[in-house]
Design brief:
The chain has 4 domains: 185 residues, no CATH class; 202 residues, no CATH class; 177 residues, no CATH class; 186 residues, no CATH class. It is 46% helix and 17% strand. The chain is built from 21 helices and 22 strands. The strands form 3 sheets. A 6-stranded mixed beta barrel has the order 3-4-9-6-8-7. Helix 2 crosses helix 17. The longest helix is centred in the C-terminal third of the chain and has 39 residues.
Length: 796
């Protein structure tokens, strides 16, 4: 055959892969894991950067928002929206929208939350939407005084109304207002999200309902053909400078126009950086695989020498060696790509069901090109480089050379890469195991909390403490409810620690400022989660009155950490951090002690915390303790909130035992994946050491035999064979442990408590590495000690 590769060479490559199944399987699984992770990262980056709405003008849809003088991103108010709509020459259309949940009422005790959106009526021609029945919005629907109307999605029509063909023209009560159904949209239509209701925006006020004041809305537009996003940004920024100038920080400084499917500013660069890091990790894995390939290639030196002697050119020999690795890389790429697709589909369905509708997580031509690039990249690093190193000199001359571990045919670069691989795998294992411990603690039961008795609810669309308290009172009045209250967090949902001090009394030394989680709560919250006092009292109604003396309730670990177990009642604590307005936090008197209720479930050093009573601050969660099955309260609680205000949204109903369970399960899966990757990388490092040392023993049989004949001791032979390998093993292990400990110092940025690594876990991983690496080095060395001079002299 005149081509570079013949069918015979393909068959030879496959036979060699099957001849060494363990080595081949190790290489394939290692590369497949790295490739799968890189493809997942690239797919998310591609969706973020190159996502496109499924419309004819989908690539010209843009989001428009302002950045104020304080560098905060903000939506446009009604005046800014109308100015851009009427005067921006770069746009064919400018509209306003707001995706949000609505309360759909079917009777006094029958309400449900439904996702939907307010949107300007003129959007319909641009999204190519045709209703199944009825009509689209028309411009008149957004005029002042227009009849309130609504578009309903097919899924809601079927689910709630059984596909009733007479739904068109019926009145639905949405957010307390009666609206006429004018059209039913197909499930295939989704804009701006995957909601089930569309309501027209009042064009004149940019408000959602009659009587509402003008409000800020997210604004979108369709850029004219041949106009860039940068040109549109420049025009709108110039228009914004014509708005009345003020000295307020909220004054618009600039306007940003970006693709509708794009993320926040800088997201593309961040996503690209993540993909780059993943590819670099894959390269490290591939470089370690090249160690195995290098050793296997040297074991075939006699065969390659014969091929060379029979006239095979270096290019032919290198091509054959590269072909064998390319076959391995292709198999690994196929497995990695299939695994990535399966993982993304599972994660998308299980954890990202509410993702943007244009994010399909399906492969594109760009993903295919990236996958092909990875196949060539790993094959070149893992196979081409060793092949070139082996064949750079005459093969017969190379076979007779005898060099050490670092300088042998693999070279100093290869040894350095092996050290890097060991360091990264040890660091990854340290971090992954620590995170796994945190997630396990995060899932564990908290003995001081009541089981299966507390319902938790996320509070949304409640703009004032007055309305929040009304919802709490309505929940407390339901039959079977023992207590109800609102709090900033729930147990296991980690509040960030605050620098806290205890006031010294008498001749006590001044207390060192230490971090402690601080949890703001409203009336009844501690009672709702079943808190019992170990001493003192819980908060009373008087603690929430304006001007009341500042107080706090601490937990038992706080007493041990800050007071050494001494009586805390009457002592004072203070957060040593300024408030947002720059004022100093007040001293708070400790009025009660409660058990550990999960302020920090993993990090013992941060378990000691305290609760503070708040009135006006926003609280995110409602807790309701009941004597009946908690989830049976859901319809009654929704109806009670709707009776107060039909626009109040309550969502994510869970028992306290299962609150945020999906997030915990996802984090646990991430931890397992990281641990597996670290384990595979570490295994590859150990196997690489074994392969190199085995290669050295085979390559230096004659030298070892002569040294034994000349009286070399067993210890000298062992040091010759394993010394360099163990040095690289130790360096990689030390650096890897340091990397793991350094990364864990960033645990404060996480939303859960991560335990201090201590010394036991890093030491265990390091000793495991030393034991496995020592075994990998001992086996070839043991074989070397059995070499007899007579055998060595007869070796090739």
């Amino acid at each position: 055959m005149n081509g570079l590769f013949s069918p015979g060479e393909f068959r030879l490559g496959l036979r060699l892969i099957l001849k060494q199944p363990i080595l081949s399987l190790t290489v394939i699984l290692a590369l497949a894991t790295g490739i799968a992770v890189a493809i997942i990262g690239f797919t998310f980056r591609d969706e973020l950067v190159n996502g496109r709405l499924p419309y004819q003008a989908g690539d010209r849809f843009a989001r428009i928002y302002a950045v104020d003088r304080a560098a905060n991103r903000r939506d446009l108010d009604a005046e800014g929206y109308r100015a851009f709509r009427d005067r921006a020459a770069s746009f064919e259309y400018v509209g306003a929208m707001q995706a949000r949940p609505f309360t759909l009422s079917h009777g006094p005790d029958d309400v449900e939350p439904v996702q939907g959106a307010f949107i300007t009526p003129g959007w319909m021609p641009w999204v190519e939407a045709s209703p199944l029945s009825g009509r689209n919005f028309i411009p008149a629907d957004g005029e002042p005084g227009a009849e309130p109307v609504v578009l309903v999605r097919e899924s809601l029509w079927q689910r709630r109304y059984g596909g009733d063909p007479n739904l068109i023209g019926r009145q639905l009560t949405i957010g307390g207002q009666s609206r006429t159904v004018v059209g039913i949209m197909p499930d295939s239509f989704r804009f701006p999200g995957s909601g089930e209701l569309w309501l027209p925006v009042n064009e004149s006020a940019a408000g959602g309902a009659p009587g509402q004041p003008p409000t800020a809305f997210p604004v979108f537009g369709v850029i004219r053909a041949n106009v860039s996003f940068e040109t549109a940004t420049t025009e709108l920024t110039e228009l914004s400078r014509q708005f009345p100038a003020t000295d307020e920080p909220g004054q618009i400084a600039r306007v940003v126009v970006q693709p509708f499917t794009g993320g926040p500013e800088g997201a593309s660069l961040a996503a690209s950086a993540v993909v780059f890091v993943l590819v670099m990790v894959l390269l490290v894995v591939a470089s370690n695989v090249s160690t195995l390939v290098f050793a296997r290639t040297w074991s075939r030196a006699p065969e390659l020498a014969v091929r060379s002697a029979l006239g095979a050119t270096r290019a032919r020999v290198v091509g054959q060696l590269f072909l064998e690795t390319l076959l391995l890389g292709s198999i690994a790429t196929a497995i990695g790509a299939a695994s990535a697709l399966g993982i993304m589909r599972y994660v998308g369905d299980a954890y990202m069901s509410d993702r943007p509708f244009w994010m399909t997580l399906e492969p594109t031509w760009r993903t295919s090109a990236f996958t092909a690039f990875l196949a060539l990249l790993v094959s070149a690093v893992a196979g081409l480089w060793p092949a070139l190193r082996v064949t750079r000199h005459d093969l017969r001359h190379t076979l007779q050379a005898g060099r050490g571990f670092a300088a042998g045919g693999f070279g100093r670069v290869g040894a350095a890469l092996l050290v890097v691989e060991i360091a990264l795998s040890v660091g990854l294992l340290n971090g992954a195991v620590t995170m796994a411990r945190a997630f396990d603690s995060y899932m564990n039961e908290i003995p001081a909390l009541p089981r299966n008795q507390v319902l938790t609810v996320q509070l949304g669309q409640i703009q004032s403490a007055e309305w929040r308290d009304k919802v709490v009172e309505a929940a407390a009045a339901l039959p079977g409810v023992v207590a109800a209250g609102a709090g900033r967090n729930l147990p296991r949902i980690y509040p960030l620690p605050r620098r806290t001090a205890v006031e010294a009394i008498g001749d006590e030394p001044a207390q060192t400022v230490m971090p402690a989680p601080s949890h703001p709560v409203g009336p009844g919250f501690l009672e709702a989660i079943g808190a019992r006092t170990l001493s003192g009292r819980l908060f009373t109604a008087a603690d929430f009155v304006d001007g009341a003396p500042p107080v706090a309730v601490v937990n038992e670990p706080f007493v041990r950490k800050f007071l050494g177990g001494r009586n805390p009642i009457g002592r004072r604590i203070r957060i040593e951090e300024p408030r947002e307005d720059g004022t100093q936090e007040p001293w708070r008197e400790i009025v009660g002690v409660v058990p550990d209720l999960g302020l920090s479930v993993a990090n013992v050093s941060l378990a000691g915390g305290f609760y503070t009573p708040v009135r006006e601050e926003f609280l995110y969660y409602l807790a309701v303790r009941t004597t009946t099955e908690p989830l049976k309260l859901v319809p009654q609680l929704r109806a009670a909130a709707a009776n107060l205000d039909p626009d109040i949204q309550l969502r994510d109903f869970q028992t306290l035992e299962h609150a945020a369970e999906e997030e915990r399960a996802f984090l646990s899966g991430v931890s397992v994946a990281l641990t597996v990757m670290g384990g595979i990388a570490l295994l590859l490092s150990i196997v690489g050491i074994y392969a190199l040392l085995s290669f050295m023993v085979t390559r230096r049989t004659r030298e070892i035999g002569i040294r034994v004949a000349l009286g070399a001791t067993r210890m000298h032979i062992l040091r010759t064979i394993t010394g360099g390998a163990f040095v690289h093993l130790a360096i990689g292990g030390i650096f890897g442990t340091a990397i793991g400990l350094l990364v864990l110092q960033l645990r404060s940025v996480l939303l859960i408590s991560v335990p201090d690594a201590g010394v036991v876990m890093p030491s265990t991983i390091f000793l495991t590495l030393a034991l496995a690496g020592g075994t990998a080095g001992w086996l070839p060395a043991r074989r070397a000690l059995r070499i007899r001079p007579s055998e060595a002299l007869s070796a090739d």
